[in-house]
From TrEMBL:
Signal peptide per UniProt: none
Protein name: DUF389 domain-containing protein
Superkingdom, natural source: Bacteria
Transmembrane annotation, as ranges: 117-135, 141-162, 174-200, 220-237, 244-267, 273-297
Organism for this UniProt entry: Leifsonia poae
Entry-linked InterPro entries: DUF389
Amino acid sequence: MQHLRIIAPANLVDQVLTTLQDNVATTNIVRIPKAATRPVGDLVLCDVAREGVSILLDQLQQLGVQHEGSISVDDIGIEISDAAKRASRAAPGHAADAVVWQEIEQRTHEETSLSPTFLTFMSVATMIAAIGVVFDEPILIVGAMVVGPDFGPLAALSVGLVRWRPRMIAQSVLALAIGFAVAIAITILFTLLLTALHLMSPADLLHSRPLTDFIWRPNVLSWVVGFLAGIAGLLSLSTAKSGALIGVLISVTTIPAAANAAVALAYGATEQAVGALIQLVINLAAITLGGVATLIVQRVNQRRHAAQAITGQHGTV
């Protein structure tokens, strides 16, 4: 269950209460007249089964509550209530699979910020991966994948495309483009520094690397893995199953591909540089495509159950 706190202006409060009472997924509806002073309005509280939150938020936004009042949503850790159990049973689908579109849109939008912290994580991850690439160390590659923050903008790009948020799309593309460009440039300088200190050399990159040479040798499986990673990643975000996200982060080769390209550029290894950059583009495109496909399926299912959530009919997701 989730808890809604609504500040409803006087001209909308009756419509808000009717909307809440007509939705079978709501319970524990409370109205405190004239409780809010900024913005001015009545305070309306209710609990909602997660399966019905997104639909209810859409209805409240269509009323325009957000313009003169406000809407906030919090998770409920424990709720002991037969009424809450009835609301959960009446709501269509399963709470574990429910998608709160407003939640994932807000969460992913925050990941598009082109901040110094984001650029630092991108650069550090790429430098770690560069050492792993040169010395054929999969452990360092995995570590770099976990550190890399690039999945955030990729998820935001998928959400922006499905929900058609041009600003979010532009910010995501900008964050990815500048993030990878800065990370590659810094890693080139890092490579030259380590080379000057005799800590690595072009020979290290060009010798046989059976454990990591797949990074600059893209093939059909690169598309497959990236697509599946996009599915898993967006599922982990949209259904609040964040535990699966780490698995996504270590199953794609965006950061390692950027690292391989940077080292190859520093050493003039054109073939590896081109191959790694192609691998990077393939993974970025495949992850986005997988994420978009996942969100489209979820949106279709949710629309199919929208009428059921209002009338109280049962359905499955």
